[in-house]
Predict the 3D structure of the following.
Amino acid sequence: MTFAIEAVALRKRYGGLGGGREALAGIDLQVPRGSGFGLIGLNGAGKTTFIKSLLSVVRPTSGHLRVLGGDPSDPAIRARIGYLPERLQLPHAWRATEFLASIARLKGLGRPGPEVERQLARVGLAGEAKRIGAFSKGMKQRLGLAAALLGGPELLILDEPTDGIDPLGRAEVRRLLSEELARGATVFLNSHLLSETVRICDRIGILAKGRLVREGSLDSLCGSGTRHRLRFAAGADRERLLDAGFLPSAEDGAWSCEAADPESLGARLDAARATGALLLELAPELRDLEDVLAEAVEAAA
Ligand SMILES: Nc1ncnc2c1ncn2[C@@H]1O[C@H](COP(=O)(O)OP(=O)(O)OP(=O)(O)O)[C@@H](O)[C@H]1O
């Protein structure tokens, strides 16, 4: 397997009086190509420092970092990355097409016109003639996203991509990012919106005090491994399901059960069927990522 990002024992200590605390205290991380990876953590955990290292804006104090198989300070590697910064600096007197055309030229895209129009349409800004200074926060964010998407980069690094975007716009951004994943791009996301992160990313890393304290697939991080969620067709006999050891969920009419292995899960399902219940859905029960984050941060304290 090839990796879009490979960090080995990566450390960063900022200069200044007393040298400060290490912002990155030895990060080992491999992000597979084509995956959606979400980096989460509390304020000051080191997320921005890690992203800046990926973009060679920050020089690590020690350790190794490879991005798309090369050195992040190599301009040829940088050209294959699309980046949406957390704090966008946009030229307010320009129009969206002018701004994107200038980015396209910087990225070395020949005849950028059609690509600029394509990306503007994807972010819902086609035909937008206002100057950027008159854009709403969400429109500016969409424009920043279009700039990151120009030229179909192999790696997208997105810092709070849905910040300021309304709920329907967020759904559009999610769809757009799933299109990017489907074409084989790697998406590296930094967001405090955990509900967005779980909907976009299949892998999650938790940073706490400069250390990667948990990392893995969403299922491995949030799944209990033994709890399952089930949904039965209307008319299931509640009392008989309770007798068979199923627990109802108060919120949404789903049920849950414990089963440590496929055999015991099969036996559970047989028991449910014996009550006359018809199974509609079965999935591993996932814990809330917020709880997993809180637990990981506490353990690292
Ligand atoms: N330029 C800098 N000089 C000195 N210390 C810095 C600098 N940038 C960040 N730090 C420190 O490094 C640590 C990690 O900061 P970083 O911005 O990477 O965290 P973060 O996880 O991105 O936080 P947030 O969620 O608030 O954006 C913090 O203790 C911060 O104060």
